[in-house]
Amino acid sequence: MNIVRIKGVSKDYDSLRAVDNIDLEIKKGECFGFLGPNGAGKTTIMGIIYCFMPPTSGEVRVFDMNVMEKPSEVKARIGVVPQEENLDPDLSVLENLIVYARYFNIPKKESLARARELLKFIELESKADVNINALSGGMKHRLILARALINNPDLLILDEPTVGLDPYSRIYVWERLNYLKSKNTTLILTTHYMEEAVKLCDRVAIMDEGKIMDVASPSELMEKYGGSMEEIYLKLTGRKV
Ligand SMILES: Nc1ncnc2c1ncn2[C@@H]1O[C@H](COP(=O)(O)OP(=O)(O)OP(=O)(O)O)[C@@H](O)[C@H]1O
Ligand SMILES: [Mg+2]
User: Fold this and answer.
1) For the chain, which domains are there?
2) How far is the CA of 85 from the centre of ligand 2 (A)?
3) What distance in angstroms lies between residue 111's CA and the mean position of ligand 2's atoms?
4) Which of 41, 58, 99, 239 is 20 to 30 Å from 22 at the Cα level?
């Protein structure tokens, strides 16, 4: 079953075509990665999938619903880890989760239990009552992951989920994502780390200038083009070192 169906989707910002006529299907339970240089259109296409902004043309269906027609229904079943950290600096760790739960109309008692469970999941129980500013960068990252899970999403969208993390924290996040995948959560992520793409993704799309240059599993790409993922990435995006 396809969780996401993208047909002929483009997105223009004035005269700039950020996403250029993309067709793509993402299956239930898979981990799908968007790879590509800065400005390739990765954040833009993900923003369209999670109903942050409409496409200029084309159709996107998520859970078999048109994102333009049923944005609330679609959003209710998606968790998002944005590229920029956007926790509420006036609130504690626990409060950040509880306030976020309100967007999904989760009753207070249930959200409190869920928030505590998620703090365990990311090993931050001891920080529940501290202010956000007292967290390290890596801890904030983990908290954003927990926040994205507050509504028990069927689809988790992660925009560069491990940027700036130390090796332990990165491996920790990978392990958490693999756990979610084993529970049949569909994952869509972007990353600039080829190792991460190979370790996590069942399939990747290599993007450049709003277009998908190729889409396949990392091993299929390596068989088709030869060389490492880095070399394939450079070849498909026309970069030479
Ligand atoms: N709100 C906006 N207004 C105008 N142009 C935008 C806006 N957001 C993105 N763009 C442009 O759209 C193109 C794609 O941007 P996008 O953020 O999707 O790239 P990306 O692949 O996520 O890059 P990165 O790896 O740097 O995160 C870029 O040329 C960018 O300058
Ligand atoms: Mg981006």
Assistant:
1) 1-77+188-241 (3.40.50.300)
2) 13
3) 30
4) 239
